[in-house]
Amino acid sequence: NERTCLIFEHERLKTNLDLCIDEKQHLMQKQKQTTNEIKQFKLRILALQDQINKLKRNNQLINKKNFINSSSTIRKRITKKKKPKTSCLEMLLDQNSTFIDDFQNESSILYRTLPSKSDKFNINQWRRQRRYRTCSLCDCHTQASFMKRKRQSSISSTIPKRKYDPLKKNYNNKIRLANSCHHDTYSYHIRKPSISLTTQKIPTKIGAMRRRIEQLEMNLADSKEENEQLTQRLSTTFNRINILKTTNQRLINECNKLKTDYLTQSTLPGQENRRNDSISSDGGENNIDNLCTRLKNTSSDAARQRKLNKTLQIDNETLTKNLQSLTEKLTHTERDVASKRSLIENYKSRLNEFETNLNRSNEKTINENDEERLKSLTETMEKLRVSLDSYKNRLQAVTREKQILEARYGQLVDEHQKLKTHFEDIQTKHRLSEQQIRQCRLNQEQLNQELLTARRLTEQQLLSLNTKSQDTLNKMILELNRTQRRLNEYERFTNGFLHEMIRRNIQMNDTLKRAREHQKQRESFSMTLPGYDTAMNTASKILNLTQDDLDDIMSTTDESFQGHSKLDNGDKNEKIRQKVSKLLVSQEEFSGKLLKIFSKKLDEIQEADRNLATIRNT
Question: What is the pTM of this model?
């Protein structure tokens, strides 16, 4: 029993050690996954910071939007050759007022060739950046410079200059200028849609900004939900780590208790050791059963943790897919930016050509059609005043939206700071978990050493028990052989004694029958022959024979009668022998039955002796 208990304890301790190693590996994998998730959170936070910075820049550029758009609609006329601060747009608008509208149409055609609806967000962002850029050929960067240019252009348009002589109308030069910019000819009917198209730009920008803000709010909400889920998972993992620590400490304490019990048992004497061994074996079995139940619970917890890890891996895969889609969008936007830059360079080259052509045409046809141009300019100025009033109203709405966006931006900054603090807390918890894992490793090493010592002690005990058991088995085998020999001798004795009893019984029965027959013969001869007794006495005296010998001699005549009686007695004796053999072979108690059989035979022999004695006395 002690040997089997020790073997079971040894195997259970092995299984416990294997399970502890598996749990350790599982915890290490979880630690790696948590570090990867923390890295992903860092990247997510950096991306959010970039988005916030972009929103700041866009909000700063909203103030300049109206002035830049209005500068695109105002037409100016070049009056001086050597004026250093004249802009390219003024030169173009003096010659052809539909240049901006046609430029918008061309840009819309180019955007149709770009990717599908999924990339609209990046395209709108690029459009905003493009609208907020200033001209690289002029110095129109601020509102003050723009207003100065406006005043100069208005003065130059109203006051004619003496330098330029009047020239004839040159329709071919107009056609060349229009073809160089890929626009239609100068006409009053084509000039009308310029204001309507420019007025449609601002609401589209506002809608795009609102969509952008809504998308950012949705992304922030998603990030908050993901952070909450991850914090919950981290809390569950920390709780499970604490539970595993407590279980490991309990196992260590129980192993120490078993060691102390074993040492105390070795110091006690022989009888007390046996008693204590029986008690300790019962207690050890109970402890081992408790350990098995605890190990089952820990294994179930480990399976649950593995399922959670699988779900985390699926979430990571989805995040990687989202990153791939974002990278693809970035590549599309980069391509768009490259194409737009090439277009801008082309437009710059065209503008340079256009300036050269204008200089040439101004030298030839400066004073041609001044009255018609003055009329057209007055009409355009009135229309531009109306459009400026509408733009002012829209600017007020934009400023209100800007204030709302600034408030939202402040909220986003506060949320970002909260996320930073939460991230720092997660890092501290992660460090604590690493320290706890190190302590678990040290405890595991101590357990391994203790298990090795326990294994050596159990092996020594098993060897001693094997030697003792072999000695006892040899002794038992010798005793069994001796008892077998004695039993065989007893069986032989019983069989021989029975044969002798049967033989003597047969002899006594034969002698009785002979004596009775001789007595009957004597009686018959004495009745028939009166001198028969005297003759028998004289014959015995002469021959020196006893009466029995004479009876044997006289009994030769009646052998046939005696043969039948012997057969009957033989059948009875064979039945008795068969009963005795069955009793010896059977596993039941047969001592009483054998005594009955032997007592019957002894009684028969005694009766036969008595009858012989009575017959001889007569």
Answer: 0.26
